[in-house]
Amino acid sequence: MPPDGAWTAKEGIALIGDAAHAMSPYAAQGAAMAIEDAVALAAALACEPTSLAAALSLYEHARRKRVKRVAARGAFNRFTWHASGPVAFVRDRVLALRKPETLAADFDWLYGCDIGEP
Ligand SMILES: Cc1cc2nc3c(=O)[nH]c(=O)nc-3n(C[C@H](O)[C@H](O)[C@H](O)COP(=O)(O)OP(=O)(O)OC[C@H]3O[C@@H](n4cnc5c(N)ncnc54)[C@H](O)[C@@H]3O)c2cc1C
Fold first, then answer.
1. What is the pTM of this model?
2. Which DSSP string do the residues of 87-110 spell out, in sequence order?
């Protein structure tokens, strides 16, 4: 998908999930993002009940930064998982030095995100 394409049209069209921003599989977040989109779209519609155009714009604005960050994480995973030679050596050294808890904490922004209000 073109990463910066429009996800909404003010006439009343909103794309969510893969239709808006299909991702590489390397972060395993395509379905998660589709669910988050649905929550964010519902919240935006509740927040702007009198203007569909404003609600759709709010939804798109609320989601774009996070979806971009998650897609970037997928691209990073793809790079590191398929690395070879010196890059793979450095990757393995870094992973060996890090504690599992701190590695897991690196993903708090991804798995601990509260979509909540737009
Ligand atoms: C092998 C694999 C593993 C995955 N693992 C994960 C994972 O671990 N975690 C994760 O978050 N994501 C994962 N994903 C990604 C995830 O499956 C997708 O990102 C997610 O299903 C997207 O949901 P969606 O509702 O946007 O699209 P879809 O699930 O593709 O739903 C679109 C629906 O629209 C229907 N449709 C299409 N055209 C029409 C039409 N003209 N009229 C009526 N209906 C139509 C389709 O039949 C389909 O049912 C994985 C994907 C694959 C392929």
1. 0.93
2. HHHHHHHHHHHS-HHHHHHTTHHH
- Give the integer Cα–Cα distance in Å for 93 and 75: 21
Q: Give the ligand 1 atom nearest the CA of 31.
A: 11
- What does the pLDDT profile of the chain (118 residues) look like in tens digits? 777 899 999 889 999 999 999 999 999 999 999 999 999 999 999 999 999 999 999 999 999 999 999 999 999 999 999 999 999 999 999 999 999 999 899 999 999 988 876 6
Q: Cβ(74) to ligand 1 under 6 A? A: no
Specify if 1 maps to a domain.
no
Can you give the residue range of the structural domain that contains 80?
8-111
